[in-house]
Amino acid sequence: MSIRAINARGRLVFTFFLAIFFLGCENEAPEKTPESFRLPAGYRLEVMAAAPLVHNPVAMTFDEWGRLWVVEMTGYMRDAYASREENPTGQIRLLTDQNGDGRMDHVEIFLDNLVLPRAVARVRGGILYAEPPNLWFVPEVAGKAGDRQLVDSAYAVGGNVEHQPNGLLLSLDNWIYSAKSDQRYRWDQGAWHKEKTAFRGQWGITQDDYGHLFYNHNSNPLIGDLVLPGLWEQNSFYAPSTGNNEKVALDLGLRAPQPTGVNRGYVSGVLDDDGMLCSFTAACGPLVYRGDQFPAKVQGHAFVCAPEANLIREEVFEGKGPDLTSMPANPEQEFLTSNDLIFRPVNLFNGPDGALYLVDFHRGIIQHQTYLTGYLRDYIESRGFEKIKDHGILYRLVSNSTPLRGKLVLGKYSSSALVALLSHPNAWHRETAQRLLIERMAWSQVGALEKLALDASNPLAQVHALWTLEGLHALSPALLREVLNEKESLVTTNALKLAATAVPISPAIIQPYLQSADREIQLLAWAAWVRQPEISQVDFGEKLPFAAQLKDDLWWVDAVMSAPSPVAGGYYASAFPGTAIDKRYQQYLDKKNKAREAIVAAHPVAKHQMNTWDRQRGQQLFVQHCSGCHGPEGAGTASLAPPLRGSEWVTGRPERLAALVLQGVEGPIQVAGKSYDLPGMAGLRSNAFLSAEELAFLLSYLRQNWEHEAPAISTELVLKVKSQIADREQPFSAAELKSRFP
Prior knowledge:
It is a single chain. The protein is α+β, with helices and mostly antiparallel strands. Helices cover 28% and strands 21% of the residues. The strands form eight sheets. Strands 1, 20, 21, 22, 23 and 24 form a six-stranded antiparallel β-sheet that branches.
């Protein structure tokens, strides 16, 4: 009998006995059996490492020697009150396979005494790792940690553990991107460089073969960049509305294996009548599978973790570029499910052997106390889940149809052998070879790389060769022009990005693509064309018939306006008054003029009614509780949260704002004339660590920050509203708030 076939009472009994089984297991490695999991036919799940080799893992990466670096967030939620969270108990461990059986059997503590570390990347013979608020680089010296070097003291400033940057994905374009961040990093010419980029996602980040980035929010399993990263963000006075943070997954529903407890399980529609979770509430750790061990039909599929429901979703992409979407591979059954309520998949990775690697945090509590409702706290404590910690398992998901690849030690490869690996069918080998060639400054291989870039028999190798040359600062305009004669979409897409960001070429080379039937190539061609230094207003005029067809197309507007100097945008704005290009150009001018005025105004007049201490406390609370979703400047985050800055909900009736923040809101809402239908906001009323006085500081800060001049909110008003809504369980709708507090 399947889990889904058990009746509601049976599910509750099953859950109770499973919880009893885990009570008292705090210091024991959990037993795992194949019966705990359900997988499609033809796959198996193997334990790569468990206690005592690993505890509390949240992230990992393989290096060029076949070793495994694991980040352990030991301080996270030791109990339901986040006690001792700031204690330096985190570690980064280095695991190796010494007996050659393909599984890890030896561990070294590379770094310890860390506070809530969250991400790691192998670079430059050491590791880049995140320990809020800092981003550090530590060289490896004779197998030990050398002197650490500060890369960024503001990598993860503010927010809470659920809403801080993570990921550290070395992308195809040689930049390191993070989820929950608007910064990217790169080691180039002897120094670390930091650059602003689009704000992306929440926990976990991945890429496809083209170099598109994908990520998610807790309620949306897959969103992403539907144009290549780094193109739409080059104009600091222009805010594109397309390209990044685009919804990809169309089906947010879950096929949960058993009843579960989630933060807002008491809200109607979150759980079904049998206690099954209806949709994602903690989606994280997405991965585009790009190995070579799974069946060919799975290549390029996305996998997403749902630790709250003890499962992993498989998503199949459809379409391309702006039309890209995804759907579950199996609408009836999730790819991997477990009847173990403490199975907590939080991250997924491609491995050097072609398999898919899975990080199981394996603990009772995964909801941070900032948002922990009394409902979930009761669920946790009644089942003894707070006792289940300090375990953690690293799994390897393997297809039975193909043997695992043997161990390849890329660190021993010559540079010429690494060039050959750019043609490897497993993306891990291509990416690692590209990184090592750039880190070695392998200029002796430029000729071989140029030859590979022109070999149309392997488009993936061509793309990696191009970006390796870019990383070596050895990509010539002549080579790029020749590559752009190719008709392969993968190659053309990346060549156009390179033309827009790295190597200027003649606009005439790009012109044939301006009317491409491939929507992404067409947009990239416009983005590259308007960035070429040789372009003139005569060129703009000659392309007027093309532009006339697109003048109200926001994707095209963003392609043109996001250039560092939007001269073309100004030309087309004048040519097509009242259209989308004209309106967005005027917004660009307004933003640029305001920035200039702010610089000129050296001593702005103080307008605030809050005293200095109250304001500082309000700002701290905003950073901790609001900035993660609404952005550090209150401008909102696409696909997640509307803006606070300029919002009538913030500056309007104080009782309405207090009720919204206390109880939360869900469903459609209008903010500053724009409609939003985004994931609902959980209220802060159940947070035992926020007093009414502190809520008053927070609300008053929102009403008197930025350009706002609304009166402050008192502690008494917060207490009054809290009393008025004491019997309410569900979040408000926007209509209810307006009706109750007109």
